[in-house]
Amino acid sequence: xxxxxxxxxxxxxxxxxxxxxxxxxxxxxxxxxxxxxxxxxxxxxxxxxxxxxxxxxxxxxxxxxxxxxxxxxxxxxxxxxxxxxxxxxxxxxxxxxxxxxxxxxxxxxxxxxxxxxxxxxxxxxxxxxxxxxxxxxxxxxxxxxxxxxxxxxxxxxxxxxxxxxxxxxxxxxxxxx
Length: 177
Description:
Elements: H1 2-27, E1 46-48, E2 56-58, E3 67-72, H2 77-92, E4 96-102, H3 106-116, E5 122-126, H4 130-135, E6 142-146, E7 152-157, H5 162-176
């Protein structure tokens, strides 16, 4: 008799797990992906600069003041959506903005910045995406707030909005200085 009810019991248990997962996902912000790097030093790197390919920038070069590391690419449609926000952050001098050009062709990235404007203090190039693995970068756009000592304080996945800046970046920025 129990064998008759076993498939139903298994089905109900799986349905309950599925329902619990759906409800949990509805309460979370889809742009908030927990990062194991929050509160830890930014990964060490030495990457070439887009505008001066003969120069490299290291994680040590960026220390001393907080910065936003904004991951973008010319092939990324969502990067176009967030670019005005990134530009306004830089224009207002809210925080230094460092570009991280991800898996892109140099000429395409230069053309993209010419078309939409270059708000970045520096633009790092990770053409093959190898250093992105150390950062836990899934794709573009993503943005990291790194404090003056080089510790990652926040990660945002997807296009940033002014709501993100006001609710997430600005409050953490004071502690990041």
